[in-house]
Specification:
Layout lengths: L1 H12 L15 E12 L2 E12 L5 E10 L10 H12 L8 E5 L11 H9 L3 E5 L19 E7 L2 E8 L7 E7 L3 H10 L9 H21 L1
Parallel strand pairs: 1-4, 4-5
Antiparallel strand pairs: 1-2, 2-3, 5-8, 6-7, 7-8
Helix pairs in contact: 2-3
């Protein structure tokens, strides 16, 4: 299974669009997506939540989720294959059409540049961004801490290529790990990250709201399935 997934990732990479297709002044809706897992009687379940936000007002305009049993095992470097089915199922429920998707996870910052943000962005044919809360170490490369000031950053360079960026969104907070997914570049990604980060949290609001929703739905589902 792992070798088949890797083969598919390499084929998908041929379709990635590294050119920018986003004008921030024209963004109307931005979507945040996150997943959460739990087990009941040895069965594993997951929920995918997508929260759509009005880019200018920062208000939530739509929330959708999908729940299902997860049968694909966790394989390092192939996590997207566990998550894509639920992502697509949730996207199908959306009434608003987001201009950009932001995923709680990685995009280009991946051994084969196929983290969830890139994988989903290609399948959806939409601009996408990955924002991870933890560092995915590739080739034993450590990251360099950015300065302790708002939006200080350091590029994550592996084999002379920029895979992503470690960004400190506020002073005295831990950093997040930002990478492009599809149809966007790092400069525009950073502009969006700055615009979507509020004082209340170091995590930009699209994935912050999606994360909050996943915890809520997971709690409800666990109670319903006991």
């Amino acid at each position: 299974m792992e070798q088949q997934f890797i083969k598919e990732q390499k084929k998908l990479f041929q379709k990635i669009d590294l050119n920018n297709h986003v004008d921030p002044s024209q963004i109307e809706y931005i979507a945040g997506a996150d997943l959460a897992y739990w087990k009941v009687n040895e069965k594993e379940y997951a929920v995918c939540c997508i929260v759509i936000i009005d880019y200018k007002s920062k208000k939530i305009v739509e929330e959708k989720y999908a729940v299902d049993e997860v049968k694909i095992p966790y394989i390092p470097g192939c996590l997207a294959f566990r998550e894509i089915p639920l992502v697509l199922k949730t996207v199908d429920k959306l009434e608003c059409v987001p201009d950009v998707y932001v995923f709680d996870g990685n995009g280009y910052l991946h051994p084969r540049h196929m983290g969830l943000a890139a994988h989903a962005g290609i399948l959806l044919d939409k601009p996408s961004i990955g924002i991870a809360k933890t560092y995915y170490k590739i080739s034993d490369e450590e990251y360099i801490q950015p300065a302790n000031e708002p939006f200080a950053y350091r590029d994550i360079i592996i084999n002379n290529e920029i895979y992503g960026r470690v960004v400190r969104t506020h002073k005295d907070v831990k950093p997040v790990f930002v990478s492009i997914g599809n149809k966007i570049n790092m400069d525009i990604t950073m502009e969006i990250v700055k615009e979507m980060t509020e004082k209340e949290s170091y995590i930009p609001i699209p994935t912050r709201y999606a994360d909050i929703m996943t915890h809520k739905i997971r709690k409800q589902q666990k109670m319903n399935r006991v």
